[in-house]
Amino acid sequence: MGLSMEIRNNKPTLFEKSTCNIWTDPYIQQQMLKEHLNPISDGASRKQESILKIIDFVLKQSKPKSRLLDLGCGPGLYTSLFKDKGYDVTGIDFNKASIEYAIGKRTDINYILGDYINEYPAGEYDTVIMIYCDLGTHSDKDRDKLLENIYHSLNDGGVFIFDVFTEELVKDKQKDKGWDYAHQGGFWSQEKYLLLSQTFHYPENKAFGYQYNLLTKDETKQFIVWDRYYTEEEIILVLQNIGFRKVTIHKNILDGNSFTSGSEMFIVAEK
Questions:
Q1: DSSP reduced 3-state for 60
Q2: Same-domain check for residues 39 and 120
Q3: Do 218 and 202 lie in a common domain?
């Protein structure tokens, strides 16, 4: 295995974008899809038990049988259930494997392959959802751009429902560095590989950065994934600055998450 290839070992700048994207890499997105479809895994869409709890929560907070947009919809595990409840559903995701799977499962749902930050789906919605703490993966600049688009796409009285990590995330995540060797391939590559995983904490910005160096015999790839966490007061202020007139915080919706953290809160922001 050629180890002379460049390894990124330094701490990234806050919300730096990596040269490779974990959600659009052709091989990794297939592995992501497998995680989405595993009913007992929290690795992508959350386990089936948690999905049903979230669906029930959204149903109680939203206008019945209305227009709903799912940002980061994955393979359609949530959108399908909302469609079955009579909602007019649109889903967008930039994981090609997941969107192709979703389209193959349901032709009565409007699915879009795209980046919801830069290709926000035009339309008027009564409910917009973004699940699995996706808002925290974006820089504050991209977050505010997205929130502006969400706000303007909602009808009066419409709601944006999403989840973010709380400060309790710090208890679950630690600064770390380690090597993994997969001699028969695995999640990151179908061929044998070395993986350098690094976790960096940015306490002044309430963020964690996860940097991965993937080394195979032919190449080195770098990936960076971000998690932003919030206090209740902070996320309420962010939403009020966009224009949302009513914001409510909901905790203990789920029992926990074995993959990331159980330290999340759900937010309902009404226009």
A1: helix
A2: yes
A3: yes
